[in-house]
Amino acid sequence: MSDKKRVCIALAAVAAVCLAGLAGVHFALQALFGPTPEYRKGAVWQELKLKWYIQTHSQVALGEVLTFEWEEAYLDRMPYGTGESVRQLTGYAFALRPLNDGRWNRLLFFKDGQLVSEIVYDSACWGFPEEMDGFTADTVFCVQAGEKTGRYVLTVAEGYEGTAKWGEEAAAARQGESGAPP
Question: How far apart are the C-alpha atoms of 177 and 169, rounded to whole Å?
Answer without folding.
Answer: 12
